[in-house]
Give the backbone structure.
Amino acid sequence: MTVAYPRKFRNELSAQAILAQVVKNREVHMVTLNRYRFNEQRSCKDLTDLIERLNGQPRDMVKELSHHVSDEARHAYWLTDLLYDLGEDVGTPPGSSYIDEFERLLDNNASAHPEDMLIEALAAINVTEKRGCEYFSAHIKVLKSGEQTPENIKIRETIEQIMPEEVGHVRWGNRKLAEIAKKSPAHYAKVDVAKRKYSAIEQAAFESGMDVLMGAEFRRVNNLMKVVETLPMWQRPQYLLEKLPQTLLSPELQKTRIDLAQKAWERDPISFVQNFIPMFFSADLKSAQKAAHK
Ligand SMILES: [Fe+2]
Ligand SMILES: [Fe+2]
């Protein structure tokens, strides 16, 4: 059985390396917290949508999902309270949204059979929860090792409150998928395919939200092809036709680039020319990182 775990960003940067940079820049730190808040809030909407589609069956699944919604709503309000108390933005965060990209990459032609739909939904929830755990645990580690300001302590305590519940959600998803896989070899195969498919979709969504450097469009297509490889042959052309245009010509990607460029320009025009422009054109992460933190 596939063990679907999130990979590092372009196989190079660990969550902890990314978070260490995020925490150093307060503005980026606050946007990151607001993205957590937004994702928690959005997951309430998605879980509610799944409950409605299940329409009462299986009963125990509906009950467990309703508890899950309540957990995610609590996470959203803890993070909203945190940002509110810090006087920070609680609106839609700027830049590409991981969750929107994830949803854009979903296969609209997936089976409508209730059990298949449930397997797909569980696999999709499970892989995003794993990414959440990876980020929260790295965030806590970075905040523990850094300067203990009242603000950073408050942020760490909020994430520490959320983290055990997210671990519980991952375990719940693993258990539910394993129960379905045990029913028959056909079920086993369906669960395995779903795990591989959603892990490829999640990786593509995750990287697209972080990668705005030169050549990002081609790396997106590469990730899209990895999703395509997990689909049955007959679904591949249609999926590709639907997803390829926006992958290549993403207005969100362009907007994020322009926003970032504007911010860098406003902050320091000289550094913009010396560091920021080469960062985009080299598309080399190591030098990009160095340049971004000079
Ligand atoms: Fe959550
Ligand atoms: Fe969760």
Summary: The chain has a mean pLDDT of 83. Residues 15-216 form a domain with the Ferritin fold (CATH 1.20.1260.10).
